[in-house]
Amino acid sequence: MDITSDTHSQHISRQFNQELEELKTHLMAMGGLVEQQIQEAVSALLEGDSRLAERVRDNDKAVNDMQLKIDDECTRVLARRQPAASDLRLVLAVIRATSDLERIGDEASKIARNALSLIEASQGAKGVVEVRHISEHVRKMLRDALTAFARFDIELALEVVHEDDSVDSEYASAMRSLMTFMMEDPRAISPVLNVMWILRALERIGDHANNLAEYVVYLVKGLDIRHVDPEELDEAAIKR
Fold first, then answer.
1. Nearest to 212 by CA among 228, 226, 198
2. pLDDT for 112-122, tens place per residue?
3. DSSP state, 6?
4. Global model pTM greater than 0.85
């Protein structure tokens, strides 16, 4: 059943309403934290700021703690309220989303660690322009996926799903360019490998943002599109 016709916000129990809203609020807070982690990790690389990179690396525990807290809240809601229909989908979608956000936090930490390696070795590296561009792209995907989740916005969620293919193409192009550069200059292999790991982490962040968007479709429509090719999605039926 469509969440718009079976909204979780209409309950006799005002406390239940509040618990569900708090799940969404805490999920958005976690999303804001991991987006900040991505931004700061990339900034640390671009600005050569080792302290900022260390802070991102060390803040990974804060992301993990938020996941545990939200999962505990979801468990309590399931045990005490025994939600059904759209309410159950909301709780399950939040649980899935926190897992992806935690993994995004892990990827941001990887970016910070590789940035530290480059900074400590005082090595600039080819591919920084690509890192900046792809990082902006995946951060927008993450923001849009979280906005779609907060607003139950199917159209915005589907836009994110389609954007993932674009990120994959940009990533593949950047990797080909870096491979060619390493073959031409073997002395650049070590720093370029660090950049490759950073680009890989960014590509994975795009994948997780895509997952978040897919959970929105599940939440709102009860449809699981995780293994459906974006080109084969019947978007007219989904939006109906």
1. 226
2. 999 999 998 87
3. S
4. yes
